[in-house]
Amino acid sequence: MIGKKYQTLGEFIIENQSEFQYSSGELSKLINALRLAAKAVNHEVNKAGLIDIIGAAGDTNIQGEDQQKLDVLANDTFIQTLKNREIVCGIASEEEDDFISINSNDAKHQNKYVVLIDPLDGSSNIDVNVSVGTIFSIYRRVTPIGTPVTLEDFLQPGSEQVAAGYIVYGTSTMLVYTTGHGVNGFTLNPAIGTFYLSHPNMEFPETGNIYSVNEGNYIHFPQGVKDYIKYCQLEEGDRPYTSRYIGSLVSDFHRNMIKGGIYMYPKSSKAANGKLRLLYECNPMAFLAEQANGKATDGFTRIMEIKPTELHERVPFFCGSKKMVEKAEEFMAAAAKK
Ligand code: P6P
Question: What pTM did the predictor assign?
Answer without folding.
Answer: 0.94
